[in-house]
Amino acid sequence: MEQVISMQDISLAFRGRPALQRLSFAVNKGEIFGFLGPSGAGKTTTIKLLTRQLRPDSGKLSILGREVDTLHTDAFARIGILTDNSGLYERLSVYENLRLFADLRGLPGSAVDNVLEHVGLAQERKKPGKALSRGMKQRLMLARAVLHQPELLFLDEPTAALDPATTREIHRLLTELNRQGTTIFLTTHNMEEADRLCSRVAFLDHGTIVECGPPDQLKLKYAKDELIALTGGGETLCVPKTAEGLRQLAGQLEGKNLLTLHSTEPNLEEIFLQLTGRGLL
Amino acid sequence: MNHLRTIRALFKKDIKDTGKNANVLILLLLPVFFCVLYNLLDFGGEVLPPEFVLQLSVLMSLCLIPTSFLASIIAEEKEKNTLRTLTLSGVTGGEFLCSKALVTFLYMQGVNLVIFFVTGQPVDRLLWFFVCTTLTSVCMIFVGAFAGLLSKDQMSTSMIVVPFMLVFLIPPMFSGANDVLGTIAKFLPTAAMIRLYFQPDRDFALNFTVILGWALAALAVFLLIFRKRKLDN
Known about the structure:
The complex is a heterodimer. Chain A is an alpha/beta fold. Helix content of chain A is 33%, strand content 30%. Chain B has one domain (3-229). Chain B has helices at residues 3-19, 22-40, 50-79, 82-87, 93-118, 126-150, 157-174, 179-186, 189-198, 204-229. The radius of gyration of chain B is 18 Å and the shape is globular. The two termini of chain B are 23 Å apart. Classes of the chains: A alpha/beta, B mainly alpha. Chains A and B meet through helix 2 of A and helix 1 and helix 4 of B.
């Protein structure tokens, strides 16, 4: 499968303190790849390295098949970026903010109209940036990042501090973009977001990847091998997740009303806690 | 990316954005305000000569607009992270600064045009006035540009810009009233511009050399700072 991002043994320290330590991973074309970790783990640092805002101390780094150092400014035509320090022109309207980037990329005005419809800001096109709510600003910045239909999209905590409705809307947009062929690299400390969106996640702790894989596979890998059953009488039965365990359960349920039966896969946060001893927040 | 297309797009945005920015528009109004004010002053029947009013107002325009205005609009983009967004979209430092300098130059010459006509200067001197102010503005624009590069935010631009403003403004303003200031003014581009405009046949080589020398020096300092600091923190 074609790799759009490749990081090999990347290390970076700030004033002697290691931020990333021999970080290695790859992202395949068409994936939504999530970088999950608490604040200070190195997520934003990783995105800054990938977008040439920082240089590594050692290691190899390539995006879209080329080493990051050799990327020409034209490469930005294939990439979209939304980071925590993306800015808006607050005196300009929603339309004018996007029109600037359409003009920079040689896109027609209709591209702006289309993306405004897509992110649900068509009615707000004349509103100045400073009059937008937080959620609208985030949608506008996302619109700007995807205006030119990039092959690769970098998102740094795209739904941080947003309300659930806006978050859901942004997730819908990202899923739609991915369906249209955009590879997405996103960082988040929201495990539900990672679980819902990502085809693969990597857990980052103190600048190293402690686990990586599709969310469902990770949950199975770290699941306890047991089944929990709840009866109508309020009794909780716990048996091993084996054929013998099922036979035991059947015996224990004689004459009882079974309400629920489930296996005990952990969520991503519980996996992270198991691996690192600390939570995602 | 196509450089001309990029600069055109940035220029369009800068004109729109600065047109709505009251904080910097006030800087454009100040020289015009003082020009009108000086014209209205009456000292018991005696008014200030129009050439003197032109001198004071254009000095203010040249010392304020290319320096403060330009430094401020550069620093604002750094402060609000819009510069970072532009560079991550493939805009180069040169393209960014080119657009800002062009906008500043246009506004400055617009103000100078108003001053020219308010002070009743003859129309046949307009071209020469434009040439003199353009040559001198080159140095001032580089000063404004490196002040913008060095400042983290808009507030801190004054710390860098004001000393330059005072140096380029005060000696030419009071050169007639003080010998020391008069001597210093001989070697300043702003004073050289005034002499070049009003007396082009006198000391042309000296005046032109002073203006050119300062422009080259300011360019050298700008390039040094640009290479070291780049555009974005």
